[in-house]
Every structure is written in C-alpha cells, then in structure tokens.
C-alpha cells in the first residue's frame, strides 16, 4: 500500500479523499460533472502544462484544517495542490463565475469566432466556454490581430488567429517527439507559435499536436473542411502498428473513414493505452495514411458524452420501448393526452427512426 497520506477536500460542498500532492483540478475531476473547472491549457499527460490560461480559477474558502484562513485571491486549480480539510468553491462561487467570464472575454479578444467554418466546432472547449460564460457583444475597440494561415508540412495547418497560446502543442512536440523545433516566440500581444514548427513535422508523432490543441488552431489537412464532426460517427478501432499503440478513434460517415484521432477521455485528454500502459499517442501513419476501413479492426462505438453534439442523431441500435401508457401510469388513465401526430409529420408512428439512413449511420452497426 502507498504511504501517501489521504487528504479530505470539499469542493462545492462535496467531500472527496485524495492522496497528498493531488491538485484541486484533479480532485474536482474525481467529483466530476460541472464541479470540475474547465482547463484550456492543463493536459494530464504533458509534464509542466497548466498555469497559462486561468480558466480553471477557483476560490479557496478554507485553506486547511490547520490554517483555515481563506486564500485572498482566486487560484489556478491545475497548479494548486490540496491540503487536508481544504474547502473550495467553483460553481458555488460568484467570484469564480465572474472571473471566468472575464478570462473568456480575454481569450476571445482576438479570436475570430468563426465556428461555422472551423473544423474544431462541435468539440471545441473554447466554444463551450464562450457559450457558458461569453457575452453577446465585445468591449474591445481595437483591430483584432490576424495571421495568415500557415501550411506546416503536408499534414497540418496552423491558423494562428485561433490560437490561445496554451503551450500544449509546444509541450507535446518537446515530450512526445524527439526533436522540438517550435515554441512561442515573443510575448504579450506579439506572442505566437513560431513557424519553426515546420521543422519538427518530419517527426512520426507530430500529428498529436492536433489532438491536444483545445481550439481549431492546428488542424488535420486530410480532414479539413471535409465534414462536420457531428455528422461523423466515432468508433474505436485498432491495428498492428510497429510505431505506436495502434489504438485510435475512427470518425466515420457511412463506411468511409474521414478522420483518425487518438482516443480521448471525458476531459478531452488522450487516454492511456491498455496495450502499453502509457499515453496512447498515435503515429502519423495511423493518423493520416490509414483511411481505409479494411486497415482497421473496428472494436465498437466510441464513448461520447451524452451532452456532446457529436452524440446527437446516432441511434442505429435504438431499442423501442414496448410499454404502453397505462402500464407506465400503473393502470391510471392520462388526464390529458395530446396527439402530436396530427400536427407533426415527423412523428408519424410508422416511421422507424433507426431505419432512416442518417448521415452517420454505418452499415457496420445496422441491426442484424
Ligand atoms: S476554435 Fe472553437 S471557438 Fe474558435 S472558431 Fe473554432 S470552434 Fe469556434
Ligand atoms: S496552436 Fe493550439 S495547442 Fe498550440 S499553443 Fe495555440 S492553442 Fe495551444
Ligand atoms: S488549466 Fe489551469 S491555468 Fe489553464
């Protein structure tokens, strides 16, 4: 058994026990749901990540059992470790909500918000933050900074205008590939991801920068503008690859593979591979070159949050309930029953929605 002591921490009135050294963010993720603060720059598999974006700010209303004084300022939960007896407020703190709205306003100062044409739309954490905390107008009176799009080799495009300078791609290139050639050049509003990234593109694992980018700044040129993610269906698949774990998510439409990515967990972070026990980074060959279904062994539907737009409209295995209304109501008669079929063609009872050949319905998952 580990000798690490367990600390009790209460986050939004929910108490969990975590090993000493755990950050508030990781403790909050154990609680899960909305209690976990958003994190745009922290990325568990990347050492040294976090502390840049301030989206994960929380209020520490009690420092610890020994020193119960509250922390005067909001703290970055991804960089602050828990103390025994600590009490933290995230969604229960007006200060935090107010500060987060301010952070989102800053992140969007120069951001184009061109979600309708952005490949990241539908799986973009900034889009979610903008929806939850953003305001409909801007107070910014200056011209937004813009950049030319940049082709980074034959696979990746950098659209610096959308970059939020989270440094994740820099850490990925430094830690996952063996030759980091890029970084953030300059500071303040001149800061940008340096174009020396081109040089690191020869590396077999550089495609992972696309997966870690929380916005649509780094995009896969083999998928760019080909489809919207919510029209595709993610399935887990694997292959015998001599470079990486070969465990991927295929993004399919019908039987066509549109995109290949690493497998991600509910926080958008690349999962640990059960095969290697390490982070499941995938190589460029698997990501960009294997777009034929015959090159993969499909394992099943990918886990997608039920709140995600990607999960919408994909019900090929829908089981229809056989229960009648009187059975549901324990034999009682409904007091008012509205017949929506008379006003809505869409709900005509003879239409079996699972039979409709929707855009994301693959024959692999059709009912036997
Ligand atoms: S990066 Fe996200 S918020 Fe920005 S344009 Fe793309 S989808 Fe919209
Ligand atoms: S390109 Fe993406 S991953 Fe890299 S710093 Fe910008 S937002 Fe972060
Ligand atoms: S996730 Fe904590 S500062 Fe960015």
Automatic annotation (TrEMBL):
Ranges of residues in domain 2Fe-2S ferredoxin-type: 7-94
Required cofactor names: [2Fe-2S] cluster; [4Fe-4S] cluster
InterPro entries: 2Fe-2S_ferredoxin-like_sf, 2Fe-2S_ferredoxin-type, NADH_UbQ_OxRdtase_ferredoxin, NADH_UbQ_OxRdtase_Gsu_4Fe4S-bd, Prok_molybdopt-oxidoreductase
Superkingdom per UniProt: Bacteria
Ranges in a coiled coil: none
Residue span, 4Fe-4S His(Cys)3-ligated-type domain: 95-134
Keywords per UniProt: 4Fe-4S, Iron, Iron-sulfur, Metal-binding
Protein name (record): 2Fe-2S iron-sulfur cluster-binding protein
Species name: Polluticaenibacter yanchengensis
